[in-house]
C-alpha cells in the first residue's frame, strides 16, 4: 500500500484516560503494524501486549468491536487497497500481503463485506478511478 498513514483500524476509545483505553490504543497500533502476519490473532495480540485475553476483550468491548473483527477489518482494508492500486497483483500475493492465510479466506471476507468477488471489487474500483479521472 502506498498510503501508510491511512488508519486501517477504526477503533477509538470513548475515554482516552482510562487504562482500558490505553490498552485499546496500543492494541490498535499493533494491529495496524502487524496485520500482515497471518499468525496475528486475539491470543497472539494479548501475548504481544503482555495482557490476558480477557483484559484485551474487555478493552475492545468499550467501543463495541471484537478483537478478531478489528484484525479482520485491518486486513480487509489493506487487501482493498492492494486490489485497487495494482490490478496486476495476483490474488495470492494480495492475500499474503494482507495477512490472510489463503485466497479463499480473502474471498470469503470480501464477499461478506462487499458482496462481491476480488475481481468484481477490482472492476468496481477501476470504474470509480476512471470516472474520477474524467471529472
UniProtKB/TrEMBL annotation:
Q: Which SUPFAM superfamilies match?
A: Homeodomain-like (SSF46689)
Keywords (A to Z) from UniProt: DNA-binding, Transcription, Transcription regulation
Is the keyword Repeat assigned to this protein? no
UniProt keyword Transmembrane present: no
Write down the superkingdom of origin: Bacteria
All residue ranges annotated as the HTH araC/xylS-type domain in the record: 25-124
Would you tell me the protein name for this molecule? AraC family transcriptional regulator
This protein's species is: Microbacterium gallinarum
Amino acid at each position: 500500500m502506498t498510503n501508510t498513514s491511512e488508519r486501517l483500524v477504526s477503533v477509538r476509545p470513548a475515554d482516552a484516560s482510562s487504562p482500558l483505553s490505553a490498552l485499546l490504543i496500543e492494541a490498535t497500533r499493533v494491529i495496524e503494524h502487524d496485520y500482515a502476519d497471518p499468525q496475528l490473532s486475539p491470543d497472539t495480540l494479548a501475548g504481544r501486549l503482555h495482557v490476558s485475553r480477557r483484559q484485551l476483550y474487555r478493552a475492545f468491548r468499550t467501543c463495541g468491536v471484537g478483537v478478531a473483527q478489528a484484525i479482520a477489518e485491518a486486513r480487509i482494508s489493506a487487501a482493498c487497497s492492494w486490489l485497487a492500486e495494482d490490478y496486476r497483483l495476483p490474488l495470492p500475493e494480495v492475500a499474503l500481503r494482507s495477512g490472510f492465510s489463503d485466497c479463499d479466506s480473502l474471498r470469503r471476507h470480501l464477499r461478506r463485506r462487499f458482496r462481491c468477488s476480488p475481481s468484481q471489487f477490482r472492476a468496481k474500483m477501476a470504474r470509480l478511478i476512471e470516472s474520477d479521472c474524467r471529472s
